[in-house]
């Protein structure tokens, strides 16, 4: 079997099963594990998968630039964002992560909803200017241009001074085994800091994030309380997530 053919079969297996194991592939294709690891390494370099210990998971498509991500699965993002708004109660302190799905959340807010928003996203802060009943606290720090959010020690210091009711966490991958992941190390640190200061953490999971992984771990699924997904999300994935103690809300 040609290398190209083997790689294609690996990708097909990854798509159908949600993960692949190096040892299993080695036995199936009757090649060494070193050969399989090389295949996985090359596929990962092309952005086709995310390598993990012992094998690989589907790579998240949600790690491109903010401008590119803003056009990715926009209808699905709107649906989960509209459902997410229903989780906000008047008078709450709500932390809102940066990201294209949380941007849709802000766009879906009713004009008469009154709460305090805490964010490290200048874009979300500016969008909330159109909501006069929402008090806005903008967390400062170094601007991370890829995601248009602030990061660094100053941002974490600001976050640690707040007790919030809700945190809407942005992720690029959510997987029952690989956990919550994102594409940048510092962003992962910021997300953990936010989650640690909120009574409840919610992930708005549009389809491109489900059952995928990115290089940097935010934490396992015990870090969150609720995930909002589309109604037709794979039932096996939903069952796995619920089995880990996370509530699943369908949009």
Key features?
251 residues; alpha/beta; Arc Repressor Mutant, subunit A; Rossmann fold; 2 domains; seven-stranded parallel beta sheet; three-stranded antiparallel beta sheet; 10 helices; 15 strands; DNA-binding; NagB/RpiA_transferase-like; repressor
Number of strands: 15
The radius of gyration computed from the alpha-carbon positions, rounded to a whole number of angstroms, is 19 Å
- Mean pLDDT equals 92
**Principal-axes shape call:** elongated
Order of helix and strand elements from N to C terminus: HEHHEEHHEHEHEEEHEEEHEEEHE
**Helical stretch count?**
10
CATH topology of the largest domain: Rossmann fold
| CATH architecture group name of the largest domain | 3-Layer(aba) Sandwich
Helix content: 25-40%
N-to-C terminal Cα separation, in Å?
44 Å
How do the strands of the widest beta sheet line up side by side?
6-5-4-9-12-14-15
Main sheet summary: 7 strands, parallel
Determine and state the CATH class of the largest domain.
Alpha Beta
How many separate domains?
2
Question: Which structural class matches the secondary elements?
Answer: alpha/beta
Low-confidence stretches: none
Strand content: 15-25%
Indicate the topology.
Layout: H1 3-17, E1 20-21, H2 22-29, H3 33-45, E2 49-52, E3 55-58, H4 66-69, H5 74-85, E4 93-96, H6 100-107, E5 115-119, H7 122-127, E6 134-138, E7 142-144, E8 149-151, H8 153-159, E9 164-169, E10 173-175, E11 179-182, H9 185-196, E12 198-204, E13 216-219, E14 226-229, H10 235-243, E15 247-250
Parallel strand pairs: 4-5, 4-9, 5-6, 9-12, 12-14, 14-15
Antiparallel strand pairs: 1-3, 2-3, 7-8, 10-11, 11-13
Helix pairs in contact: 2-3, 5-6
């Amino acid at each position: 079997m040609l290398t190209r053919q083997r790689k294609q079969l690996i990708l097909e297996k990854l798509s159908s099963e949600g993960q692949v194991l190096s040892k299993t592939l080695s036995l199936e294709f009757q090649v060494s594990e070193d050969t399989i690891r090389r295949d996985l390494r090359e596929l990962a370099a092309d952005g086709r998968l995310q390598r993990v210990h012992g094998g690989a998971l589907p790579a998240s498509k949600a790690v491109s630039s903010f401008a590119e991500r803003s056009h990715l699965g926009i209808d699905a993002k709107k649906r989960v964002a509209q459902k997410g708004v229903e989780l906000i109660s008047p008078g709450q302190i709500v932390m809102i992560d940066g990201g294209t799905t949380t941007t849709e959340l802000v766009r879906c807010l009713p004009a008469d909803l009154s709460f305090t928003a805490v964010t490290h996203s200048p874009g979300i802060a500016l969008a909330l200017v159109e909501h006069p009943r929402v008090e806005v606290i903008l967390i400062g720090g170094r601007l991370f241009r890829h995601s248009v959010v602030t990061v660094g020690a100053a941002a974490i210091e600001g976050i640690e001074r707040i007790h919030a009711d809700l945190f809407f966490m942005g992720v690029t991958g959510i997987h029952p085994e690989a956990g919550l992941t994102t594409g940048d190390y510092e962003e992962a640190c910021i997300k953990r800091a936010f989650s640690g200061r909120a009574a409840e953490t919610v992930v708005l999971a549009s389809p491109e994030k489900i059952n995928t992984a990115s290089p940097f771990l935010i934490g396992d699924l015990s870090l969150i309380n609720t995930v909002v997904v589309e109604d037709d999300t794979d039932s096996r994935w939903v069952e796995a997530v619920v089995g880990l103690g996370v509530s699943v809300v369908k949009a």
